[in-house]
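Troubleshooting log. The previous structure file for this entry was overwritten by mistake, so regenerating from the original sequence record. Sequence copied from the archived sheet and checked twice against the printout by T.R.
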Amino acid sequence: MTELQDLVHRAETEFAAISHPAELENAKARYLGKAGAITALMKGLSQLSPERKREQGASINLAKQGIEAALQQRRAALAELELHAKLAAEAIDVTLPGRGQHGGGLHPVVRSWMRIEEIFSSIGFAVAEGPEIEDDWTNFTALNSPQNHPARSMQDTFYVDVEDERGQPLLLRTHTSPMQVRHARAHVQRYAAGIGAMPDIKVIAPGRTYRVDSDATHSPMFHQFEGLWIGERVSLADLKGVYTSFLQTFFERDDITLRFRPSYFPFTEPSAEIDMMFDSGPLKGRWLEISGAGQVHPTVVRNFGLDPEQYIGFAFGSGIERLTMLRYGVGDLRQFYSGDLRFLEQFNPA
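Regenerated output below.
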């Protein structure tokens, strides 16, 4: 056996005994690397005569090709062994029971949101949705909030570092009342041509709102729905009837008593807090604040584009989380946003 044949044989034997790809690459370097045996032989050709150089160079190339072939063969073998090992480790035992696919479910607040829309839609109220980033005029001024109102302070409202075309700051809406303004003005504009009598404005505006507040009963982001009914013959008696019917339907019980406490809101006059009481059950006899309401202030009616001497109506606003807590017996608002599946799965039984 010649020296080159012996070199190829040693390389084949060494490669065949290697069981790890990294070791194979190290072995390759000993034969084909910059300091390898084949490279050293190639460098020695410079000392030979031209005729001998051609002969020896051809033999070295044949040896190099043999070593490279053995290297590629072992690489492929090791790759196959690695694949088989991986498949064995990840093998599926078909005798095991299958993994069930659990579907998602609705968040309890979303359940209440949908229920509220369904109830009010059934009695002729439209549903309005709009931007959560509002301008100062629509969120405050149009609703008769004075410049020095506490809600306009940086401590109570999230302001955006952008101004509108009036040069007023934008903000995350503090209530969904701006949608009452937007809906009412659009409603009035549709009938501005005077074609037929303008129908009553009946709308609820559910959605996310934002205030700088956080504790067991408050969240910086919360959900609210506000209602508005404006017409020529709408009174607070209608408010009591509508809201009583809503609560009885929402809670699926008739043993609910309401009371209206005098209060103050800049956008209604007179204004009231609505309290409710269950006549049975764990909360029997306990008054629960459930909504703010009142007759729409004449200035607000005027900002809708209507004559307050002709049109009158009521507005109310309720927290969806508050209603959800009472419906499901949840004691801490923060549980809704904890992401705890043990809590959330209670509302979506399998």
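The mean pLDDT is 87. Archived copy saved in two places this time.
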